[in-house]
Amino acid sequence: MQRHYLLMLLCCLFAGGLFAQLPGSGELDKIPVLQLPAQDNAALLAAELAARAPGRAPHYAIPLSVDVSPATGGAWTDYPGGKSVWRLRVISKNAISINLGFTEYWMPQGGELFLYPGSSKSKQIYGPFTPADNEVHNQLWTQVIEGDDLVIEAQVPTSEKANLRLRLTSVNHDFLGFGANSASSGSCNLDVVCSAADGWGIVDQYRDIIRSVAVIGTGGGTFCTGFLVNNARQDCTPYFMTANHCGINSGNASSLVTYWNFENSFCRQPNSGPSGQNGNGQLNVFNTGAIWRASNPASDMTIVELDDPVNPNADAFFAGWSREAAAPGDTVIAIHHPSTDEKRISFTFQQTYRVNGISTTPSTNGTHITIPDWDIGTTEGGSSGSPVYDKNKRVRGQLHGGGAACGNNSFDSYGYFHVSWEGGGSPNSRLRDWLDPDGTDLLFIDGREQLACEISVTPDVVAQAVCSGEDVTYDLLVGGGFNGPVTLSIPNLPAELTANFSQNPADPNTNVTLTITYADGFSGTSTFDVDATDGNDAGSTELMLDIQGTVPSAPLAISPANNSSGASIIIELDWADVNAANYDYEFGTNATLTNLLASGNTSNTEFAYGELLEADTEYFWRVRATNSCGTGEWSDVYSFTTANIVCGPAQESNDVGGNIPDNGPPLISNNLITSSGAISFMELNVEIDHEWVGDLFIRLVSPGGSVAVIMDRIGGGGCNAENFDLNFNDGATNTAADLQATCNNNLTGSFQSESPFTIFNGEEQNGLWRLFVQDQASNDDGNLISWSLEFCGDDGSGSDLSVQLLSDPIESCSNDDGEVSMLLGEGFGNNFTVAVSAGGQSLDFESTFANNTLDLTIDNFLTLASGSYDMIVTITTEEGESQTQVVPLTILPVPGIAGQVSPSNGSTVSDENIQFSWNSADNVDDYSLQVSTQENFSSIDYEENTGGTSLTVNNLGLEGLLYWRVVANNECGNATSSPFNFTVDPNATHDFSGGRELSIFPNPASSAVFLDMRGNWSGELDVNIMSVSGRVISTQQLAAGGRKALDISGLPAGTYLLDLRNGGERSVERLVILPN
Asked: pTM for the complete prediction?
């Protein structure tokens, strides 16, 4: 919902409108009043501040439940001319602002809804909300309106009165202040409006991404920051991202209000008085309403789709993104709304690193990235969900939490975009399905202007697959933002293809058919661009075409292996990819597959059956593939037999009834299990009474010490529902992501846990099991009512063909070996065969077998590129029964090449304190700096190792023309940069005239700079350190002559100018300060 603005000058607005009756023209004292119970703002604020913690969305208002409609409250007035007006006055005493939640909203044609303050002193009118705001969710949530007294006014044609649907269920009382009324953010923050004219030229290059960020309110009570993101189609779908802990889910996304361009009108210098006070931003350009698309608690990600196009007055920017794995460095930018204050921008010039959660502990595959410290600005409450950008202006994550604030050097942790891309593996828990809906596999994409949404050429489909011999057509829409005829072209069309446009040039806002032809027998995949221009503005789109030559072959079974036994009663059928568009599958109980349990079609190479199978039962399945040339043959009918599983009764814990401490240590409840046997399948039942179930984090620990996370704060902590009685098992149809998106009182049903129970498979059920229940937020408490466990296991009859992986996942360089150890069931005997493959390639290995333990040594992985694989070990008995074990395999990459920075190629330096620096490279353990007098480095005259990206060498001992390079090292090898040449001249000086010479070294510098003054110096040397824009940052006075140290402490990394003055002469020199 969009296009609702602050309206003034009513006579101008409504002159010539539908009705003569102006909103707000009724007598206030005659409008029925809905008086809400008095609230204690001070007590509400104290409770809110006590509850605040990293990873929790701040609250600014409390919802007051009401239930009012035109049928139950307010008053209708019928006017001459066939119009009727319904009004209701709402008062929540001492509210700083009020916003409303209508859980039923449907405006008939010709109708409008207005809101205005009940104070006769105000002339402001908000609206109109019209039939354009009718949405599929039938809800309307309004912007905040200052004051504690407002009037709701609906104007409709009298004939449409019965069709008005308006049900007010939430009046949200602001006790803190939202936006202009809020508590001010810290004075160290930097306004986004600041520019070179204010001494902040660094901000100017980020004007576009600044416009992607908005302050948001959800459910009328919580606030965060979020941002608009581009997608691979570049079709301006209004996808909007924020943090999962901000609490947006499928149940409340309709209440999202997004405020654009809430910025101060002038630059408040950081650390000044005005910067720590309220600004003058406006909240009058906004969207209301959204559709929840996905959330991933692990990386604290939520993405929604605004339910209307972005407000045209927003002039917004769809931010680009990168899903690269390596953490960004150099310049990293955060744009956010601290404490819902006007928009601010922060910078760090330090290397970020991956962590798990809100942390400073590095983790190679962590779910988050951590900013060690902000060099300019900071973040605060309300900044949650805000984006962090790399130096290429691409989003890399969204703020989860941390300790950063004005006055400290603490950290912030951001949920990592790279992890959110695949998320929890389903469309409602990952970004991939929304930001790359056509599967183009883009690694990164740049941003897009809102204006360019109309300066565009948009295809009906981005990627097509056809069978060789068929012509291909794309329907292209030429955007309406062009001015004049639009010329279309394809600059990179492959030579095998021919293109023809149905009209060219084409008028703006018209459809054009692009036809692609090619020679008979041609097949292959092509990518090409369609460019459009009117001579001034230009747009482009990328198209993909896969021309296939034949129908696909029949897929081979991967898991369960054909004729295998002992399969789990929770089954997933997996088959080999044959480059097909989709697959048909059949799954049943007889070899002819006439007794089907399931059949269907999928674009994936697996199918998970959603119900538990019978124990000790044979099942059958087959699969066939389809591409644009047609459907291939069915595969052979594969079969497998489930293990002879026997399930025992549910075993209740006797250690229950305890209170769950509010925002404290976990309640630990024990359950002594007396049954015995290896676990093949299990269920957990938990009943808890709690006032806010979104506070709860639950985990289960086995007697053997294995840990499964059961529940992790429903809705990211935002679910305010009470009580649940839930069953958890791996075979449940509802996933953990479904539970995260479900917020209902007294919830029941079956769900999968956050961690699969398969981690317990093979463990002995007998022993002490422990349930940990922790409340991770303040102000709500509850009790553990009951919990029980039910176990299923193999009864021991039949052949034991179990396989248990004993070794850790393999991480190896491609030229190294890898070792795998597995415990095999007795049913394999001593005569069996083993096959090992990864990435579709067979791997050579050596094996030993003793005491039922199979040890494999993989010779090497030279045929595999770096990356992650499922290494498949297939073990087959003499009778032809097989079991497959998947071993996670990571082939480590060789290091990247470091790019030299200083001394620059061809530069001249003095012989003392030479500062060598270079850009960081990917996948590096350490660097070797090498200096030689020979360009081919046949001899190395100086070498030193470091874990950083700079070294200062004192008294190198070499003069003249030299060469330097950097060798990046890791355990898999090294990569050497191309050599730079530089000249060491002990007399490298600047002529200051009058027989005076000046040397500045090192330059660039990281910690200390020296001025060496030789010749006829006298008096004092005046030194002004200036920004590149000419703003004086500091002034120092040094005794002229000799070597003097220049104080650069406290200066952030960057480029500066030194203004040097002595004896009526002046020299301006460039100084570069590197990060420490």
From this structure: 0.50
**pLDDT band for position 2 (cuts 50, 70, 90):** very low
CATH code of 32-174, in short, is: 2.60.120
Residue 180: C-alpha distances to residues 94, 334, 342 (Å): 17, 21, 8
Q: Mean pLDDT across the stretch 579-589?
A: 92
Whether the Cβ atoms of residue 1053 and residue 1074 lie closer than 8 Å to each other: yes
Average pLDDT of 978-988? 79
Q: Is 337 a residue of the active site?
A: no
Residues of the chain with CATH 2.60.40.10: 454-548, 556-642, 803-891, 899-984
Of 171-175, 258-262, 762-766, the poorest mean pLDDT is in 762-766
626 versus 679: which is more confidently predicted?
Answer: 626
Q: What CATH number labels 645-794?
A: 2.60.120.260
Write down the CATH superfamily of domain 803-891: Immunoglobulins (2.60.40.10)
Give the whole-angstrom CA distance, residue 469 versus residue 757. 50
Residue recorded with tokens 């005076």: 996
State residue 131's pLDDT score: 87
Domain ranges in the chain with CATH number 2.40.10.10:
190-450
Distance CA 887, CA 707 (A): 20
Q: Exposed/middle/buried for 569, CB within 10 Å: 0-12, 13-18, 19+? A: buried
CATH 2.60.40.10 fits 454-548, yes or no: yes
What integer pLDDT is reported at residue 956 of this predicted model?
81
The tokens for 175 are 């006790």
Catalytic residue among 133, 149, 191, 300: 300
Q: In this predicted model, what pLDDT tens digit does every residue of 68-110 receive, in sequence order?
A: 999 899 999 998 888 999 999 999 999 988 989 898 898 988 8
The first and second tokens of residue 577, run together, are 């990819």
Instruction: Show the DSSP H helices in 94-156 as ranges.
Output: none
Decide: 894 and 973 in contact? Cβ < 8 Å.
yes
pLDDT tens digit sequence for 162-203: 889 999 988 989 888 775 444 567 889 999 999 999 999 999
Any catalytic annotation for residue 384?
yes
The catalytic position among 4, 59, 173, 245 is 245
CA angle 336, 338, 341 (to 5 degrees): 100
Question: Tokens 């003034």 map to which residue?
Answer: 8
The burial of 826, by beta-carbon neighbours within 10 Å (0-12 exposed, 13-18 middle, 19 or more buried), is given as exposed
Q: Does CATH place domain 899-984 in 2.60.40.10?
A: yes
Alpha helices by DSSP H, 887-1017: none
pLDDT at 9 over 50: no
Q: Is 300 a catalytic residue?
A: yes
| Number of neighbours of residue 743 by Cβ within 10 angstroms | 20
Residue 33: count of CB within 10 angstroms of its CB: 16
Which residue in this structure is represented by tokens 């992607």?
Answer: 212
Dist. CA 880–CA 868, nearest whole Å? 30
Cα separation, 965 vs 15, whole angstroms: 75
Can you give the pLDDT at residue 201? Answer: 93
Q: Write the DSSP string, 702-732.
A: -TT--EEEEEE-GGGGT-----EEEEE-TT-
Q: What percent of the chain has pLDDT over 70?
A: 93
Find how far residue 36's CA is from the centre of its chain: 39
Domain 996-1073 class in CATH: mainly beta
* Of 97, 182, 383, 384, catalytic: 384
Q: For 556-642, which CATH superfamily applies?
A: Immunoglobulins (2.60.40.10)
